[in-house]
């Protein structure tokens, strides 16, 4: 006589899933100050793992290789932040004549509405130029705190290199932990999937950095031709913001457009910025990203867009940056088990998932042959 286990009714399963999602979101919100530096440290560790492995292959002790990688990351991020802050600090000087220019634009708009529609909008009287100038000045100085707000606090800024160091130092130990979790699988197969996952995330990060570099060159060239001041800063910042899909390019275009609108004497310049940025984005979307980044993360467009909204709502800018590689990691982890493979199918592209299923079948065949 066989005993049958208790089967949970469908409505209880749905309720369990909803409770799990609520608890997970609550955990992500409450633990933001710790989780954001933890994940950022993990991604920096993945980015600098090849350097650490190369140093260790040259007989450099692991601790020393981790320290060298940490110093290089600190120098790279510190140099980038210094570049951004130093350029933003000079914006206030360029806004000396903003109030008068806004008044002039308001008067021209009133004249146009009067001649075209015989209606006086009286925008020149409604435009509080001193207030607008103060907003521009205050926001320009507050951008220097962007990195601090992204990671949540000064403590988070300090924790990122600490987590990165420990991830690099104990990367083999973490691999053994995952192998023990999936001990019903072939250890070599699990290790191969972990290595593949690390390469996927590394290729994604390196590909994004390459695209950012090319975009920075194109942006700087276009803005320099148009005669936009701070072309290097706007071009570099637009390339960095491109790491946030959908939303980043919008702000990357708006900043130089607003700046040229307020500091130049013609609408040709903001229009030129918009046109050049659209052309560059077309090149990026149709040539650069497909060729360089490709399908490394293998996430479908709907999940990517939904993840950006959820990540931005929970963790702000940091969530929008981290959500795509995080979902790529989850997709690979879900694909390790038959019970969670439907979730991997939900996150990924159908064509890619079919290919992964074939690869999984081949791996299982190899495993069976080894057992024989």
From TrEMBL:
It is found in: Cell membrane. The chain crosses the membrane at residues 12-30, 36-55, 67-89, 146-170, 201-226, 232-255, 267-289, 301-324. It is a multi-pass membrane protein. Keywords: Cell membrane, Membrane, Transmembrane, Transmembrane helix, Transport. The keyword Transmembrane helix applies. The keyword Chaperone does not apply. Residues 356-372 have a biased composition (Acidic residues). Its main location: membrane. InterPro entries: AI-2E-like. Residues 352-372 are annotated as: Disordered. Belongs to the autoinducer-2 exporter (AI-2E) (TC 2.A.86) family. PANTHER family: PERMEASE PERM-RELATED (PTHR21716:SF53), TRANSMEMBRANE PROTEIN (PTHR21716). This is AI-2E family transporter. It comes from Algoriphagus halophytocola. The lineage of its organism: Bacteria, Pseudomonadati, Bacteroidota, Cytophagia, Cytophagales.
